[in-house]
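Example record for the data management plan.
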Amino acid sequence: MIAPARRVAYEVVRRVFEDDAYADRAFAAAAAELDARDRALAQRIAYGTVQRVRTIDHGLDELGRRPVRKLDAAVRAALRISAYQLGWSDAPAHAVADDAVSLVRAAGLERATAYTNAVVRRLAEGLRALVDALPEGPLKQSYPDWIFGVWQRDWGFDEAVALARAQNEPGELVVRAAEPVGEPTDVPGAYRVARIDPGLLAAGRIWPQSRGSQLAALAVGAEDGERVLDACAAPGGKATMLRGAVTAVEVNAGRARELEANVRRLGAHDVRVVNADVRALPERGFDRALVDAPCSGLGVLGRRPDLRWRARPLPELQLELLRAAVERTRPGGTVVYSVCTINADENEAVVDALGLEVEPLASAWPQFAHPKRPEFLLTTPHRHGTSGFFIARLRV
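Corresponding structural encoding:
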């Protein structure tokens, strides 16, 4: 009998690396029948394996004595989740080995069961020491070289390591709420909680949203009576925080439907959803705009385990969207540019290329002032314990 959590984690890992599935979607489908305890364990194993797969595969290459890329897919997935449990949890080796063998046998690969069992035993004996002996850097922390290289270029080696480590660990769980529901934080309306209350979520009384994300919406400074544009609005966390008459634009039809549902759930009656590309939006004369642009996501890698393997910078698109918002904002109005990444190419460089006057934000939020450019805000996982967001407010 294979432990339900391990079976689900195995299925998710196969979907992510064989079918290029998104980890959260694959997990939601695979874990639908699990109870709360098994669901939490399955998520920890699946997401941890996806995050640390570069380090895991190095360990398997060294201790498995066969190249990982040449293994049968079922064997590879079973060994990957086994390696994660043996390297980064206290799971007993015998249980991990038994389930790995059973998963391989269930896949019709009886011939590979002895090999699987032997490799799991070697992992139990030697993986932690092997990982501990690796030099600090992207292999040890399991990141693509380019991501670690960006952080090292922008912040130096020690900060790059701190960022990498922080986004390999579970982050704080924060919700937005009108009434206290947990521990207050340094962002008004943001509460740290131990778990998401499904009843409060369904009723629209709370919304899972990091402090960094909430800060981006607060920085807009929207007031009642103003016309406000949210240029890239789905799934709606920021749009539903904005005051005034909000036009929430989303180019993807499916995400626009999701946005509409979330707006209704949260009772944001002043938010109007428009399924369109903001670059083609005919409306003009907004008082304020928010451009929460698509980006590489290097500030949210902790909660999106597969993103590090598919991320790419998007500075050209970001600048296009920012210019479109500026064109639709009245003279004297303001545009907030925010991205959930820690990459100067997508952050400061995009704002500098636009050439507008920057309205400093540090006096209102000194704890989040950008260390190098204090006219901007920058939240980081290793310094602030929240998702990484770059935030700039510009005068049109």
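Summary line stored alongside the record: The mean pLDDT is 97.
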